[in-house]
Structures are given as structure tokens and as C-alpha cells.
């Protein structure tokens, strides 16, 4: 187990009307709070900050696959990027001052380079266990974050291998809500989705807004922006995105919350995961030297 005291301190960014905190471990946004002290991004009080597990909350990055690995049940769920140490590019860790972007925004950049071992990079070799073997292709990932009155996250993945590969990705965003039973999500009307809460995957069509009455785990095939309406907190959280063909919606509800030892028994009422990504059949194929960028901006407005 990694000694948590050896973990680099999270980077704090102060925008014009919001503040964020980002950890190099997984390049994970741990906090984003606008104006008031009610966080927009939720973090579990039981989250592990031990440099081993992904802290339960914030914005973990799922990469280079989402959910279970396609062929290896031993591989870590949601890929290895969320438990890898990323390199802080900007602001320069040697500089004491936080780098300031245009206007009042504050900017940070992290990078992750993945190179498989000699053996596993040979296409005629069997895939070996371990991160190299789970994904035997070289790639570079770059995350940039801009904090102003919105939280902007941009993830670029570049194929640095000599062969094409296919990958999946998601910003696994935990949105804090007043009470999940009152929350609705707009923007997905008419979209088809795979219902992962059922024993066998079922394809369904969303009619109207998304509401919550039970355990929910859905992959929407939709590149549309979404709005999370939260009457209890009297706010609308908008997620605007590009380069993302899916929105994943997850809430464990009381039925499954007990499966997570880093969630309090009532925690399911306080968050909804609204994740932007490219997963399942919408996985991205990259030729050598080719890049793909997914951008997500999150805004908060008061409800009338
Ligand atoms: O516990 P984790 O590995 O972080 O996954 C938490 C959740 O992530 C996504 O939303 C998936 O769609 C869910 O099936 C999964 O339960």
C-alpha cells in the first residue's frame, strides 16, 4: 500500500467565482465549488486518499477502457489511468505562483505516457497481465483544466504506437445534489440507452426527462449537452461537451449502495454521476500519430 504522506499535495486553482482542487493521482478533480460553499462536484466523506484506490467522488478519468476490460476479468475496472500518477505540466511545479490564463481563469495541465513492455508490444505475443498487457499500445494522454465561472476539462489521447488501437474514456463526474428523488436530467429525450441495471443489457429509448426512482446505470448513445435540474439546491448544473458520443448516468440508490465501502448508507441521495465519454460501441479508433479530444464544460445557474 502506498504511503498517503508520499502523495503530492493536490493543486488548488482559484477562478473568478469558483475554486477547484486537482490531484496528480489520476489527474482527478477532487473539488469544484462555485460562489457559495455548496460544492458542485461531490466527494464522499469515506473516500480513500491513499494513492491506491480512486477517491470516491470528484471526476475520476476512466481510460483506456470503461467498465470491465473486454477480455480480462482481472484487469482493473475503468482502466488504469485513474490510479496512475500523472505528471503536472502546468503550472510548472518548480514555480511558486499559480499560472494564470486569460482573464480570471486559472489553468492546469497534466500528462500521462503509457508504454507497454517490449514483449507485449509485439503483436504476435500473448497479452501479459498488468497494465502493459491489459493495453499493449503506447499512448499519451493530456488533461487540461480551466477554472473560471465554469469548470472546463479537455482530455486529448494520442496514439504514439506503430499500430492502430481502440480505446474508451469517460469523465466520471460526481454531481452533488440536494436530494436525488427531486432531480431531473434534461437533454436526453429520444436518446437510446443500454440499461446496465438489468441482469442482461437492454436497449431502451428515453422518453422525456430522466428521473430517479431506483438503482440507475445507463449508457446513453447521445452527444447532446445535458442539464441537471436540482430544485432542492435551486440550481441547474449544465454539462456542455464536444468529442463525446455518450452520457453515462449512475446512481446506486439504497439497493446497491451497500456494495461500496467508501459510500455512507445515505450517500446515494446526495449525488448523481453524469459522465461524458466514448464507451461501448462508441469506442474511439486511433491510427498512429492520430489524436482525439473530448471537452467538457460544467456551468451552474440558479433556478428561477
Ligand atoms: O466503483 P467504480 O469502479 O468507481 O464504478 C462506479 C460506477 O461507474 C459507472 O457509472 C458505471 O456505469 C457503473 O456500473 C459503476 O458501478
UniProtKB/TrEMBL annotation:
Alphabetical list of Pfam families matching this protein: Aldose_epim
UniProt keyword annotations, A-Z: Isomerase
Reactions listed under catalytic activity: alpha-D-glucose 6-phosphate = beta-D-glucose 6-phosphate
EC no. given is 5.1.3.15
Checking InterPro entries in the record gives:
Aldose_1/G6P_1-epimerase, G6P_1-epimerase, Gal_mutarotase_sf_dom, GH-type_carb-bd
Q: Does the keyword Isomerase apply?
A: yes
- Stated family: Belongs to the glucose-6-phosphate 1-epimerase family.
This chain's protein is named Putative glucose-6-phosphate 1-epimerase
